[in-house]
Specification:
10 helices, homodimer, mainly alpha, 215 residues, DNA-binding
Chain lengths: 215, 215
DNA sequence: AAATATATTTACCAAATGGTAAAACTAAGA
DNA sequence: TCTTAGTTTTACCATTTGGTAAATATATTT
C-alpha cells in the first residue's frame, strides 16, 4: 500500500518538479523579453524540454504567463500588508515593510521584472487585479498613514506618494540591478549590497517621515 | 534662389517631419512591447505609413530602436547633470535635480518606458553607454555628495543609494503611471498630479538629507 | 502480463515576422 | 520639357511563431 502510494507520488512529484522548473524558466525568459517578446521555444530550451512537451504542461503562452504573474502576486500579497507588518510604532512598521520589500527584490528578481514589464506595458492582464486587490489594500494603508500624521506620530507627508516612493525605491533593486551593477562596478549584487540598500532606503524613509530613531 | 531653396527645404522638411513621426510612433510601440515584442508592421501602422516605407527610412528594426534610445539618452544627458543643476546650496541643487527628473517623466513617458524595458531586460544594447557615459557622471556626483557630507551641509547618507532612490522615485512616474492611475482612481495623471509628485518627492529627499528648508 | 493512464516525440500548419528587389510614382533641377 | 533624385508601392521570401493532431514511449493499475 505504502509502495503503491510511493510510486504514484514519484510520478506526480516529477510532474510538480518539472512544472516548477518550467515556471522558473518562463520567469527568466519573460523577465528578459516581456510577454510578446518571449517565445515558447526559448522557454522550452531554458527548461531543457521540447516545445511540444512544454505545451503539454502549459497549453498556451498566455496561461503560462498568467501563472508566472500570479505566483509573484501571491507572494507579494502574503508578505506585503502594511497593516500586518511587524512592529508597534510607525518606525517599526516602516522598517519591517521596507526590509520585507527589499528582501523580495533579492529573492524574486525575475518575478519582479516580469511584473515591471507588465505594468510598464500598460498592465493589460493585471489591471483587474490592481483594481480588485491592490487598490483596497492601498486605500487602507493610506488611511493608516493619515492617522499617524493626525496623531503626530510622523511628520505630515503625502501618503499616496509616500507609497509610490517606497515601492519604487525598493523595486528598483530587482528591476534596475544591471544598472547598479555597472555603476557600483560589480558583476552582480550580493548580500552585502542588499544589506546596504536596505539600510539606506530604510534610513531614508524613516528620516523623511521624521519618525524617531530608537537605536 | 530663395524659391529653389524653399522647394528643396520643403521636401527635406517633409522628410524630417515624417522621420520624427516615425520615431514618436516607434517610441509608443517599443514602450508597450519592448524591443523583441514590437513589430515593424505595428510601428508603421502607428505612423500611418506602409511597412516598406518605414523600412525606407529606417532600414532595420535595431537601428530604429537605437535611435529611439539615443534620443532619450541625449535629453537625459543634457538635462541631468547633478553638478550643473541650478542652485548654490545642496538643497537648491537637489530640488532642481528632482524637479527636472520628474519633468522628464512627464514630458517623455514613452522614451522613459523604452529605457526601462531595456534596462530590465539586462541592457543588452545600453551596457556600453552606461559604462562609458553614465558611470563617470555618477562617480562625479557621488563625490560631490560625499563632499557635502564632509562639510556638514547634509546628514550622512549612503551617496550611491541616494541616487538609486532618487532615480527610482522619479522614474516611476513615467514607468508605473498605469498603476498610479488605478490607485489614485484617475484616467490619467495630469499636471496637478505631477506637481504633487514633485513636491512630495522633493520634500522627501530634502528631509531625508536633513538639508535646511529655506521657505 | 494486459490494460490503462501519463508523458514525450514527430509531423505538420497557418499566420506573422524582418527584410530584399524592383517597379511605379512624384518632385526638383537643368 | 527632359532628366534625375527622392519617395512609395507592389511582389516576394525564408524564418519564426503559437498551436493542433496523432503516433510513440513510459509508468501505473488491475
Amino acid at each position: 500500500m505504502a509502495e503503491e502510494k510511493d510510486k504514484w507520488t514519484r510520478q506526480s512529484e516529477n510532474r510538480r518538479a518539472l512544472e516548477t522548473r518550467i515556471l522558473r524558466s518562463a520567469e527568466i525568459v519573460f523577465s528578459e523579453k516581456g510577454y510578446s517578446g518571449s517565445s515558447m521555444e526559448s522557454i522550452a530550451v531554458t527548461a531543457n524540454i521540447s516545445k511540444q512537451n512544454l505545451i503539454y504542461y502549459f497549453p498556451n503562452k498566455e496561461l503560462l504567463y498568467k501563472r508566472v504573474l500570479k505566483e509573484m502576486l501571491d507572494i507579494w500579497i502574503e508578505k506585503l500588508s502594511f497593516l500586518e507588518s511587524q512592529g508597534e510604532t510607525p518606525e517599526d512598521v516602516i522598517r519591517s515593510y521596507v526590509s520585507e520589500k527589499i528582501k523580495l527584490s533579492r529573492l524574486y528578481p525575475n518575478g519582479s521584472k516580469v511584473f515591471a514589464h507588465e505594468i510598464i506595458s500598460g498592465a493589460p492582464l493585471l489591471k483587474e487585479y490592481l483594481i480588485s486587490d491592490l487598490k483596497p489594500q492601498f486605500d487602507r494603508d493610506v488611511k493608516l498613514v493619515k492617522s499617524w500624521i493626525k496623531k503626530g506620530l510622523i511628520d505630515p507627508i503625502d501618503p499616496e506618494h509616500l507609497f509610490f516612493t517606497i515601492w519604487a525605491a525598493t523595486q528598483t533593486y530587482a528591476d534596475f540591478s544591471v544598472q547598479m551593477e555597472i555603476l557600483l562596478g560589480k558583476k552582480s549584487l550580493g548580500e552585502r549590497d542588499f544589506e546596504r540598500a536596505e539600510k539606506a532606503v530604510t534610513e531614508f524613509v524613516v528620516r523623511a517621515l521624521g519618525a524617531k530613531k530608537n537605536n
